[in-house]
Hints:
The complex is a heterodimer. Chain A is mainly α. Chain A has helices at residues 15-38, 50-80, 87-110, 115-140, 147-174, 182-214, 221-244, 253-274, 283-294, 296-309, 314-350, 368-391, 394-419, and one strand at residues 2-4. In chain A, helix 1 (15-38) packs parallel to helix 3 (87-110) and helix 2 (50-80) packs parallel to helix 6 (182-214). The longest helix of chain A has 37 residues, at 314-350. The model of chain A has no long low-confidence stretch (mean pLDDT 90). By secondary structure, chain B is an alpha+beta fold. Chain B has one domain: GMP Synthetase, Chain A, domain 3, CATH 3.30.300. Chain B has 3 helices and 3 strands; from the N terminus they run H-E-E-H-E-H. Chain B has helices at 7-18, 62-76, 99-106; strands spanning 36-40, 47-52, 81-86. In chain B, helix 1 packs across helix 2 (62-76). Chain B starts with 6 loop residues before the first helix and ends with a helix. Classes of the chains: A mainly alpha, B alpha+beta. The interface between A and B is large, with 38 and 42 residues.
Amino acid sequence: MILTGATPLQKTTSHRVVLPFYGYAALAFLLACLLLFFSSGAFQLHYFNPHTLAITHLMALGWGTMMILGASHQLVPVLVEGRLYSERLAWLSFVLAGLGIPLLVGAFYRFDMGWPALVGALLINLGLLAYLLNLGMSITHNSNRSPYAAFILVAICWLLLTTGLGAVLVLNFSWPLLEYNSLAYLPMHAHMGIIGWFLLLVVGVGARLIPMFLISKYTNTPLLWAIFGALNLGLISFILFTLCGHPLLLQIIPPLLVGAGILLFGYYCYQAYRQRIRRQVDAPMQVSLLSIALLALPLLLALLLVLFYAGDHNRLVLLYGFCIFFGWLTALILGMTFKTLPFIVWNRVYHLQCGRGKTPSPKDLFSERQFRAMAFCYGSGFIGFALGLLLQLPLLLKASAALLIAAAFLYTLNVARTIWHKPQRA
Amino acid sequence: MTSTTPLAEQIARATEALRQVIDPEIGLNIVDLGLVYGIHFPEAENRIRIEMTLTSQFCPMGEAITDSAAELIREAFPELEPEIILVFDPRWGHHLISEEGLQYLNS
Lengths: 426, 107
Protein backbone atom coordinates (compact mmCIF):
# COMPACT_ATOMS: atom_id res chain seq x y z
CA MET A 1 0.00 0.00 0.00
CA ILE A 2 1.14 3.54 -0.67
CA LEU A 3 0.05 6.05 1.97
CA THR A 4 0.43 9.67 1.00
CA GLY A 5 -1.14 13.03 1.75
CA ALA A 6 -0.15 16.55 2.74
CA THR A 7 -0.70 15.65 6.39
CA PRO A 8 0.90 12.37 7.41
CA LEU A 9 -0.90 9.80 9.53
CA GLN A 10 0.06 10.37 13.15
CA LYS A 11 1.13 7.48 15.37
CA THR A 12 -0.80 7.15 18.59
CA THR A 13 0.77 6.48 21.98
CA SER A 14 1.84 2.86 22.45
CA HIS A 15 -0.47 0.68 24.53
CA ARG A 16 2.62 -0.46 26.49
CA VAL A 17 2.83 3.00 28.05
CA VAL A 18 -0.86 3.36 28.82
CA LEU A 19 -2.02 -0.06 30.09
CA PRO A 20 0.16 -0.20 33.25
CA PHE A 21 -1.56 2.96 34.51
CA TYR A 22 -4.99 1.33 34.08
CA GLY A 23 -3.87 -1.84 35.89
CA TYR A 24 -2.30 0.14 38.74
CA ALA A 25 -5.38 2.33 39.18
CA ALA A 26 -7.73 -0.68 39.27
CA LEU A 27 -5.67 -2.33 42.02
CA ALA A 28 -5.49 0.94 43.97
CA PHE A 29 -9.30 1.24 43.82
CA LEU A 30 -9.70 -2.32 45.07
CA LEU A 31 -7.27 -1.69 47.90
CA ALA A 32 -9.00 1.60 48.82
CA CYS A 33 -12.36 -0.20 49.06
CA LEU A 34 -10.79 -2.90 51.25
CA LEU A 35 -9.35 -0.21 53.52
CA LEU A 36 -12.75 1.48 53.59
CA PHE A 37 -14.26 -1.79 54.84
CA PHE A 38 -11.64 -2.52 57.49
CA SER A 39 -11.41 1.12 58.61
CA SER A 40 -15.09 2.05 58.38
CA GLY A 41 -14.90 3.00 62.07
CA ALA A 42 -12.58 5.87 61.12
CA PHE A 43 -15.54 7.55 59.42
CA GLN A 44 -17.11 8.10 62.80
CA LEU A 45 -14.04 10.05 64.01
CA HIS A 46 -12.60 13.43 63.01
CA TYR A 47 -11.78 13.64 59.30
CA PHE A 48 -8.11 14.30 60.08
CA ASN A 49 -7.22 10.77 61.13
CA PRO A 50 -4.58 8.35 59.73
CA HIS A 51 -6.94 5.89 58.04
CA THR A 52 -9.10 8.54 56.39
CA LEU A 53 -5.97 10.32 55.16
CA ALA A 54 -4.57 7.05 53.77
CA ILE A 55 -7.81 6.18 51.95
CA THR A 56 -8.20 9.71 50.59
CA HIS A 57 -4.64 9.75 49.20
CA LEU A 58 -5.00 6.26 47.76
CA MET A 59 -8.19 7.34 46.00
CA ALA A 60 -6.81 10.71 44.85
CA LEU A 61 -3.37 9.53 43.74
CA GLY A 62 -3.50 5.77 43.16
CA TRP A 63 -6.96 5.67 41.62
CA GLY A 64 -7.88 9.09 40.21
CA THR A 65 -4.50 10.50 39.27
CA MET A 66 -2.93 7.28 37.94
CA MET A 67 -6.00 6.60 35.80
CA ILE A 68 -6.05 10.15 34.44
CA LEU A 69 -2.31 10.04 33.79
CA GLY A 70 -2.68 6.83 31.78
CA ALA A 71 -5.74 7.92 29.83
CA SER A 72 -4.33 11.36 29.09
CA HIS A 73 -1.14 9.91 27.59
CA GLN A 74 -3.45 8.18 25.11
CA LEU A 75 -6.00 10.96 24.67
CA VAL A 76 -3.88 14.10 24.62
CA PRO A 77 -2.82 13.57 21.00
CA VAL A 78 -6.52 13.44 20.05
CA LEU A 79 -7.40 16.43 22.25
CA VAL A 80 -4.63 18.81 21.23
CA GLU A 81 -3.92 17.31 17.80
CA GLY A 82 -0.26 16.76 18.43
CA ARG A 83 1.68 13.61 19.23
CA LEU A 84 2.90 12.72 22.73
CA TYR A 85 6.34 14.26 23.22
CA SER A 86 8.01 11.26 24.87
CA GLU A 87 6.94 7.74 25.79
CA ARG A 88 10.04 7.43 28.01
CA LEU A 89 8.88 10.35 30.13
CA ALA A 90 5.48 8.66 30.41
CA TRP A 91 7.21 5.53 31.70
CA LEU A 92 9.28 7.60 34.10
CA SER A 93 6.18 9.26 35.57
CA PHE A 94 4.55 5.82 35.99
CA VAL A 95 7.55 4.33 37.80
CA LEU A 96 8.18 7.35 40.05
CA ALA A 97 4.55 7.98 41.01
CA GLY A 98 3.87 4.23 41.20
CA LEU A 99 6.65 3.81 43.77
CA GLY A 100 5.86 6.98 45.70
CA ILE A 101 2.13 6.40 46.23
CA PRO A 102 2.34 3.22 48.38
CA LEU A 103 5.11 4.81 50.46
CA LEU A 104 3.00 7.89 51.17
CA VAL A 105 -0.26 6.00 51.72
CA GLY A 106 1.44 3.47 54.02
CA ALA A 107 2.97 6.32 56.01
CA PHE A 108 -0.42 7.99 56.43
CA TYR A 109 -1.99 4.69 57.50
CA ARG A 110 0.59 4.28 60.28
CA PHE A 111 0.79 8.05 60.70
CA ASP A 112 4.56 7.88 60.57
CA MET A 113 5.62 11.10 58.88
CA GLY A 114 9.28 10.08 58.76
CA TRP A 115 11.39 9.18 55.73
CA PRO A 116 8.90 6.87 53.90
CA ALA A 117 6.39 9.73 53.72
CA LEU A 118 9.07 12.18 52.59
CA VAL A 119 10.55 9.84 49.98
CA GLY A 120 7.03 8.95 48.80
CA ALA A 121 6.07 12.63 48.43
CA LEU A 122 9.35 13.36 46.64
CA LEU A 123 8.91 10.48 44.18
CA ILE A 124 5.32 11.51 43.44
CA ASN A 125 6.41 15.10 42.79
CA LEU A 126 9.21 13.96 40.49
CA GLY A 127 6.82 11.68 38.61
CA LEU A 128 4.34 14.50 38.13
CA LEU A 129 7.11 16.86 37.06
CA ALA A 130 7.99 14.37 34.30
CA TYR A 131 4.30 14.28 33.37
CA LEU A 132 4.06 18.09 33.24
CA LEU A 133 7.18 18.28 31.08
CA ASN A 134 5.85 15.59 28.74
CA LEU A 135 2.40 17.05 28.27
CA GLY A 136 3.63 20.62 28.27
CA MET A 137 6.03 19.81 25.43
CA SER A 138 3.31 17.86 23.59
CA ILE A 139 0.95 20.83 23.78
CA THR A 140 3.46 23.59 23.00
CA HIS A 141 4.99 21.60 20.12
CA ASN A 142 1.89 22.10 18.00
CA SER A 143 0.07 25.23 17.02
CA ASN A 144 -3.28 24.15 18.45
CA ARG A 145 -4.50 26.72 20.97
CA SER A 146 -7.74 25.04 21.89
CA PRO A 147 -9.46 25.48 25.26
CA TYR A 148 -8.87 21.74 25.85
CA ALA A 149 -5.10 22.31 25.82
CA ALA A 150 -5.47 25.22 28.27
CA PHE A 151 -7.59 23.14 30.66
CA ILE A 152 -5.06 20.29 30.60
CA LEU A 153 -1.95 22.44 31.00
CA VAL A 154 -3.36 24.56 33.82
CA ALA A 155 -4.75 21.45 35.55
CA ILE A 156 -1.28 19.86 35.58
CA CYS A 157 0.18 23.06 37.07
CA TRP A 158 -2.47 22.91 39.83
CA LEU A 159 -1.60 19.25 40.37
CA LEU A 160 2.05 20.09 40.90
CA LEU A 161 1.11 22.91 43.28
CA THR A 162 -1.11 20.44 45.17
CA THR A 163 1.54 17.75 45.51
CA GLY A 164 4.25 20.37 46.18
CA LEU A 165 2.19 21.82 49.02
CA GLY A 166 1.46 18.25 50.15
CA ALA A 167 5.20 17.55 50.44
CA VAL A 168 5.64 20.77 52.46
CA LEU A 169 2.78 19.71 54.75
CA VAL A 170 4.48 16.35 55.32
CA LEU A 171 7.74 18.15 56.19
CA ASN A 172 5.79 20.52 58.41
CA PHE A 173 4.85 17.60 60.66
CA SER A 174 8.50 17.04 61.62
CA TRP A 175 10.06 20.47 61.03
CA PRO A 176 7.68 23.43 61.47
CA LEU A 177 8.13 25.33 58.21
CA LEU A 178 4.74 27.01 58.08
CA GLU A 179 3.06 29.51 60.38
CA TYR A 180 0.35 27.05 61.48
CA ASN A 181 0.12 23.26 61.77
CA SER A 182 -0.56 21.20 58.65
CA LEU A 183 -4.26 20.79 59.43
CA ALA A 184 -4.82 24.53 58.83
CA TYR A 185 -3.64 24.17 55.22
CA LEU A 186 -5.54 20.96 54.52
CA PRO A 187 -8.62 22.63 52.90
CA MET A 188 -6.34 24.58 50.56
CA HIS A 189 -4.31 21.47 49.65
CA ALA A 190 -7.48 19.43 49.10
CA HIS A 191 -9.24 22.01 46.93
CA MET A 192 -6.20 22.70 44.81
CA GLY A 193 -6.30 18.99 43.97
CA ILE A 194 -10.07 18.62 43.66
CA ILE A 195 -10.87 21.77 41.67
CA GLY A 196 -7.50 22.66 40.13
CA TRP A 197 -6.48 19.17 39.07
CA PHE A 198 -9.46 16.83 38.90
CA LEU A 199 -12.27 19.21 37.99
CA LEU A 200 -10.32 21.30 35.46
CA LEU A 201 -8.92 18.23 33.76
CA VAL A 202 -12.21 16.36 33.71
CA VAL A 203 -14.01 19.39 32.24
CA GLY A 204 -11.28 19.94 29.62
CA VAL A 205 -11.15 16.31 28.54
CA GLY A 206 -14.89 15.71 28.97
CA ALA A 207 -15.78 18.74 26.85
CA ARG A 208 -14.04 17.03 23.93
CA LEU A 209 -14.78 13.37 24.64
CA ILE A 210 -18.46 13.55 25.62
CA PRO A 211 -19.60 15.08 22.29
CA MET A 212 -17.18 12.75 20.49
CA PHE A 213 -18.55 9.57 22.09
CA LEU A 214 -22.15 10.75 21.69
CA ILE A 215 -21.42 11.80 18.07
CA SER A 216 -22.86 15.19 18.88
CA LYS A 217 -22.80 18.29 16.73
CA TYR A 218 -22.56 20.55 19.77
CA THR A 219 -19.51 22.74 20.34
CA ASN A 220 -19.29 25.97 22.33
CA THR A 221 -15.79 27.38 22.76
CA PRO A 222 -16.82 30.68 24.48
CA LEU A 223 -18.76 28.67 27.08
CA LEU A 224 -15.69 26.51 27.73
CA TRP A 225 -13.56 29.62 28.30
CA ALA A 226 -16.22 30.97 30.71
CA ILE A 227 -16.08 27.67 32.66
CA PHE A 228 -12.28 27.83 32.65
CA GLY A 229 -12.40 31.36 34.10
CA ALA A 230 -15.05 30.57 36.72
CA LEU A 231 -13.25 27.50 38.06
CA ASN A 232 -9.83 29.13 38.22
CA LEU A 233 -11.15 32.36 39.75
CA GLY A 234 -13.13 30.36 42.30
CA LEU A 235 -10.05 28.41 43.33
CA ILE A 236 -7.71 31.43 43.37
CA SER A 237 -10.18 33.44 45.50
CA PHE A 238 -10.47 30.49 47.91
CA ILE A 239 -6.68 30.31 48.29
CA LEU A 240 -6.37 34.08 48.77
CA PHE A 241 -9.17 34.15 51.35
CA THR A 242 -7.56 31.22 53.20
CA LEU A 243 -4.11 32.82 53.25
CA CYS A 244 -5.05 36.45 53.83
CA GLY A 245 -8.18 36.12 55.94
CA HIS A 246 -11.52 37.55 54.87
CA PRO A 247 -14.87 38.78 56.10
CA LEU A 248 -17.28 35.87 56.59
CA LEU A 249 -19.55 37.24 53.88
CA LEU A 250 -16.92 36.70 51.19
CA GLN A 251 -16.67 32.97 51.93
CA ILE A 252 -19.57 32.39 49.59
CA ILE A 253 -17.69 33.75 46.56
CA PRO A 254 -15.46 30.71 45.80
CA PRO A 255 -18.26 28.10 45.95
CA LEU A 256 -20.49 30.37 43.89
CA LEU A 257 -17.83 30.77 41.19
CA VAL A 258 -16.99 27.06 41.15
CA GLY A 259 -20.71 26.24 41.26
CA ALA A 260 -21.30 28.49 38.24
CA GLY A 261 -18.52 26.65 36.39
CA ILE A 262 -20.03 23.26 37.27
CA LEU A 263 -23.54 24.32 36.24
CA LEU A 264 -22.26 25.68 32.93
CA PHE A 265 -20.43 22.41 32.31
CA GLY A 266 -23.63 20.53 33.14
CA TYR A 267 -25.42 22.70 30.57
CA TYR A 268 -22.66 21.97 28.02
CA CYS A 269 -23.04 18.19 28.56
CA TYR A 270 -26.83 18.45 28.36
CA GLN A 271 -26.64 20.29 25.04
CA ALA A 272 -24.14 17.72 23.72
CA TYR A 273 -26.54 14.97 24.79
CA ARG A 274 -29.55 16.68 23.19
CA GLN A 275 -27.78 17.26 19.90
CA ARG A 276 -26.32 13.77 19.62
CA ILE A 277 -26.62 11.92 16.34
CA ARG A 278 -26.31 8.44 17.83
CA ARG A 279 -29.58 7.79 19.69
CA GLN A 280 -28.38 4.83 21.76
CA VAL A 281 -26.26 5.66 24.79
CA ASP A 282 -24.30 2.64 26.03
CA ALA A 283 -23.93 1.64 29.70
CA PRO A 284 -20.40 3.09 30.25
CA MET A 285 -21.55 6.41 28.77
CA GLN A 286 -24.66 6.42 30.97
CA VAL A 287 -22.47 5.98 34.08
CA SER A 288 -20.12 8.75 32.86
CA LEU A 289 -23.04 11.14 32.34
CA LEU A 290 -24.43 10.20 35.75
CA SER A 291 -21.10 11.21 37.28
CA ILE A 292 -21.57 14.76 35.96
CA ALA A 293 -24.93 14.91 37.73
CA LEU A 294 -23.21 13.55 40.87
CA LEU A 295 -21.17 16.78 40.98
CA ALA A 296 -24.29 18.46 42.35
CA LEU A 297 -23.86 16.59 45.68
CA PRO A 298 -20.48 18.01 46.77
CA LEU A 299 -21.51 21.41 45.44
CA LEU A 300 -24.60 21.38 47.60
CA LEU A 301 -22.60 20.17 50.62
CA ALA A 302 -19.98 22.91 50.06
CA LEU A 303 -22.70 25.57 50.07
CA LEU A 304 -24.24 24.08 53.23
CA LEU A 305 -20.87 23.99 54.96
CA VAL A 306 -20.03 27.59 54.04
CA LEU A 307 -23.46 29.06 54.74
CA PHE A 308 -24.30 27.30 58.00
CA TYR A 309 -21.17 25.84 59.55
CA ALA A 310 -18.29 28.18 58.54
CA GLY A 311 -16.72 25.21 56.76
CA ASP A 312 -16.42 23.13 59.91
CA HIS A 313 -18.83 20.27 60.46
CA ASN A 314 -17.06 16.93 60.73
CA ARG A 315 -19.81 14.69 59.36
CA LEU A 316 -20.54 16.99 56.42
CA VAL A 317 -16.84 17.36 55.63
CA LEU A 318 -16.46 13.56 55.54
CA LEU A 319 -19.55 13.24 53.37
CA TYR A 320 -18.27 16.02 51.09
CA GLY A 321 -14.95 14.20 50.55
CA PHE A 322 -16.69 10.84 50.10
CA CYS A 323 -19.05 12.29 47.46
CA ILE A 324 -16.08 13.66 45.53
CA PHE A 325 -13.73 10.66 45.59
CA PHE A 326 -16.13 7.72 45.79
CA GLY A 327 -18.98 9.54 44.02
CA TRP A 328 -18.23 11.86 41.14
CA LEU A 329 -14.63 10.82 40.40
CA THR A 330 -15.20 7.07 40.78
CA ALA A 331 -18.40 7.02 38.70
CA LEU A 332 -16.61 8.95 35.98
CA ILE A 333 -13.64 6.58 35.92
CA LEU A 334 -15.84 3.45 36.09
CA GLY A 335 -17.69 4.67 33.00
CA MET A 336 -14.83 6.17 31.03
CA THR A 337 -12.54 3.14 31.55
CA PHE A 338 -14.82 1.08 29.33
CA LYS A 339 -15.06 3.86 26.75
CA THR A 340 -11.27 4.09 26.36
CA LEU A 341 -9.56 0.84 27.44
CA PRO A 342 -11.34 -1.49 24.95
CA PHE A 343 -10.25 0.77 22.06
CA ILE A 344 -6.64 0.76 23.19
CA VAL A 345 -6.62 -3.04 23.46
CA TRP A 346 -8.64 -3.49 20.27
CA ASN A 347 -6.11 -1.37 18.40
CA ARG A 348 -3.33 -3.63 19.69
CA VAL A 349 -5.05 -6.95 18.91
CA TYR A 350 -7.10 -6.26 15.77
CA HIS A 351 -5.21 -3.40 14.24
CA LEU A 352 -4.67 -5.27 10.98
CA GLN A 353 -8.17 -6.76 10.80
CA CYS A 354 -10.30 -3.63 10.91
CA GLY A 355 -12.41 -4.44 7.86
CA ARG A 356 -14.49 -7.44 6.93
CA GLY A 357 -16.78 -7.12 9.93
CA LYS A 358 -15.51 -10.45 11.22
CA THR A 359 -13.61 -9.11 14.22
CA PRO A 360 -15.31 -8.36 17.54
CA SER A 361 -16.02 -4.69 18.13
CA PRO A 362 -14.23 -2.89 21.01
CA LYS A 363 -17.31 -3.11 23.22
CA ASP A 364 -17.14 -6.92 22.94
CA LEU A 365 -13.79 -6.92 24.75
CA PHE A 366 -15.37 -6.43 28.17
CA SER A 367 -18.37 -8.11 29.74
CA GLU A 368 -21.38 -5.79 29.73
CA ARG A 369 -23.17 -8.09 32.21
CA GLN A 370 -20.27 -7.75 34.61
CA PHE A 371 -20.28 -3.99 34.02
CA ARG A 372 -23.98 -3.74 34.92
CA ALA A 373 -23.45 -5.87 38.06
CA MET A 374 -20.54 -3.59 38.99
CA ALA A 375 -22.67 -0.47 38.42
CA PHE A 376 -25.41 -1.91 40.67
CA CYS A 377 -22.97 -2.79 43.49
CA TYR A 378 -21.28 0.58 43.14
CA GLY A 379 -24.53 2.60 43.13
CA SER A 380 -26.01 0.82 46.14
CA GLY A 381 -22.66 0.84 47.98
CA PHE A 382 -22.22 4.56 47.39
CA ILE A 383 -25.73 5.51 48.50
CA GLY A 384 -25.52 3.20 51.53
CA PHE A 385 -22.15 4.51 52.68
CA ALA A 386 -23.22 8.15 52.22
CA LEU A 387 -26.34 7.49 54.33
CA GLY A 388 -24.27 5.57 56.89
CA LEU A 389 -21.96 8.58 57.14
CA LEU A 390 -24.78 11.05 57.49
CA LEU A 391 -26.70 9.00 60.05
CA GLN A 392 -23.58 7.50 61.68
CA LEU A 393 -24.73 3.88 61.32
CA PRO A 394 -21.71 1.54 61.70
CA LEU A 395 -23.47 -1.52 60.27
CA LEU A 396 -24.63 0.33 57.19
CA LEU A 397 -21.10 1.67 56.68
CA LYS A 398 -19.67 -1.87 56.82
CA ALA A 399 -22.31 -3.40 54.53
CA SER A 400 -21.97 -0.58 51.99
CA ALA A 401 -18.18 -0.84 52.02
CA ALA A 402 -18.60 -4.56 51.25
CA LEU A 403 -20.74 -3.62 48.22
CA LEU A 404 -18.04 -1.19 47.10
CA ILE A 405 -15.46 -4.00 47.39
CA ALA A 406 -17.68 -6.15 45.17
CA ALA A 407 -17.88 -3.28 42.65
CA ALA A 408 -14.10 -2.80 42.72
CA PHE A 409 -13.54 -6.55 42.33
CA LEU A 410 -15.89 -6.76 39.33
CA TYR A 411 -14.26 -3.68 37.84
CA THR A 412 -10.73 -5.09 38.25
CA LEU A 413 -11.84 -8.41 36.77
CA ASN A 414 -13.35 -6.66 33.75
CA VAL A 415 -10.24 -4.51 33.28
CA ALA A 416 -8.05 -7.64 33.44
CA ARG A 417 -10.34 -9.43 30.96
CA THR A 418 -9.97 -6.49 28.55
CA ILE A 419 -6.22 -6.04 28.95
CA TRP A 420 -5.49 -9.76 28.41
CA HIS A 421 -7.96 -10.19 25.58
CA LYS A 422 -6.81 -12.82 23.06
CA PRO A 423 -7.54 -12.44 19.33
CA GLN A 424 -10.72 -14.14 18.22
CA ARG A 425 -13.16 -14.08 15.35
CA ALA A 426 -16.69 -12.85 16.05
CA MET B 1 -9.93 -7.40 -17.53
CA THR B 2 -10.06 -4.25 -15.39
CA SER B 3 -9.29 -1.95 -18.31
CA THR B 4 -12.42 -3.13 -20.13
CA THR B 5 -14.71 -2.56 -17.10
CA PRO B 6 -16.58 0.74 -17.27
CA LEU B 7 -15.33 3.30 -14.79
CA ALA B 8 -18.66 3.64 -12.93
CA GLU B 9 -18.71 -0.09 -12.31
CA GLN B 10 -15.14 -0.05 -11.03
CA ILE B 11 -15.94 2.79 -8.65
CA ALA B 12 -19.03 0.92 -7.41
CA ARG B 13 -16.89 -2.17 -6.78
CA ALA B 14 -14.32 -0.14 -4.87
CA THR B 15 -17.08 1.56 -2.86
CA GLU B 16 -18.53 -1.80 -1.91
CA ALA B 17 -15.09 -3.00 -0.81
CA LEU B 18 -14.61 0.12 1.34
CA ARG B 19 -18.07 -0.30 2.81
CA GLN B 20 -16.70 -3.35 4.63
CA VAL B 21 -14.28 -1.18 6.63
CA ILE B 22 -16.05 -0.36 9.87
CA ASP B 23 -14.96 2.52 12.10
CA PRO B 24 -14.62 0.54 15.35
CA GLU B 25 -15.48 3.54 17.50
CA ILE B 26 -18.70 4.49 15.75
CA GLY B 27 -19.63 1.10 14.34
CA LEU B 28 -20.43 2.55 10.92
CA ASN B 29 -18.65 1.82 7.63
CA ILE B 30 -16.27 4.47 6.35
CA VAL B 31 -18.28 5.17 3.17
CA ASP B 32 -21.51 6.02 4.99
CA LEU B 33 -19.51 7.84 7.64
CA GLY B 34 -18.30 10.17 4.88
CA LEU B 35 -14.60 9.44 5.26
CA VAL B 36 -14.10 8.56 1.58
CA TYR B 37 -13.72 11.71 -0.48
CA GLY B 38 -12.89 10.17 -3.84
CA ILE B 39 -11.97 7.02 -5.77
CA HIS B 40 -9.78 7.45 -8.83
CA PHE B 41 -8.30 5.16 -11.43
CA PRO B 42 -5.44 7.23 -12.89
CA GLU B 43 -4.90 6.53 -16.56
CA ALA B 44 -1.73 4.68 -17.50
CA GLU B 45 -1.01 3.98 -13.85
CA ASN B 46 -1.39 0.55 -12.37
CA ARG B 47 -3.05 1.81 -9.22
CA ILE B 48 -6.29 2.81 -7.55
CA ARG B 49 -6.24 6.06 -5.63
CA ILE B 50 -8.49 6.47 -2.58
CA GLU B 51 -8.80 10.00 -1.26
CA MET B 52 -10.04 9.80 2.28
CA THR B 53 -9.98 11.46 5.68
CA LEU B 54 -10.32 10.48 9.34
CA THR B 55 -12.69 11.88 11.98
CA SER B 56 -9.61 13.44 13.55
CA GLN B 57 -6.04 13.74 12.35
CA PHE B 58 -4.92 11.98 15.53
CA CYS B 59 -7.68 9.36 15.44
CA PRO B 60 -6.23 6.42 17.43
CA MET B 61 -7.83 4.05 14.92
CA GLY B 62 -6.38 5.89 11.90
CA GLU B 63 -3.77 3.32 11.00
CA ALA B 64 -6.18 0.42 11.44
CA ILE B 65 -8.72 2.10 9.14
CA THR B 66 -6.28 3.04 6.35
CA ASP B 67 -4.56 -0.37 6.46
CA SER B 68 -7.88 -2.17 6.24
CA ALA B 69 -9.08 0.07 3.40
CA ALA B 70 -5.94 -0.76 1.44
CA GLU B 71 -6.26 -4.47 2.22
CA LEU B 72 -9.86 -4.70 1.03
CA ILE B 73 -9.14 -2.68 -2.11
CA ARG B 74 -6.24 -5.02 -2.85
CA GLU B 75 -8.58 -7.99 -2.50
CA ALA B 76 -11.16 -6.42 -4.83
CA PHE B 77 -8.54 -5.30 -7.38
CA PRO B 78 -5.60 -7.74 -7.09
CA GLU B 79 -3.97 -6.33 -10.23
CA LEU B 80 -3.84 -2.75 -8.90
CA GLU B 81 -1.73 -1.10 -6.22
CA PRO B 82 -3.91 0.78 -3.69
CA GLU B 83 -2.81 4.33 -2.93
CA ILE B 84 -4.43 5.96 0.11
CA ILE B 85 -4.24 9.74 0.14
CA LEU B 86 -5.10 11.21 3.54
CA VAL B 87 -6.76 14.61 3.29
CA PHE B 88 -7.67 16.87 6.20
CA ASP B 89 -8.91 19.80 4.15
CA PRO B 90 -11.88 19.87 4.14
CA ARG B 91 -12.15 18.46 7.63
CA TRP B 92 -14.59 15.69 8.31
CA GLY B 93 -17.88 16.80 9.86
CA HIS B 94 -21.20 15.27 10.80
CA HIS B 95 -22.78 16.72 7.63
CA LEU B 96 -20.77 14.17 5.62
CA ILE B 97 -22.61 11.17 7.13
CA SER B 98 -24.91 9.64 4.50
CA GLU B 99 -28.67 9.19 4.94
CA GLU B 100 -28.09 5.45 5.48
CA GLY B 101 -25.45 6.27 8.07
CA LEU B 102 -27.78 8.62 9.93
CA GLN B 103 -30.52 6.00 9.89
CA TYR B 104 -28.10 3.44 11.33
CA LEU B 105 -27.01 5.81 14.10
CA ASN B 106 -30.60 6.76 14.87
CA SER B 107 -31.74 3.16 15.13
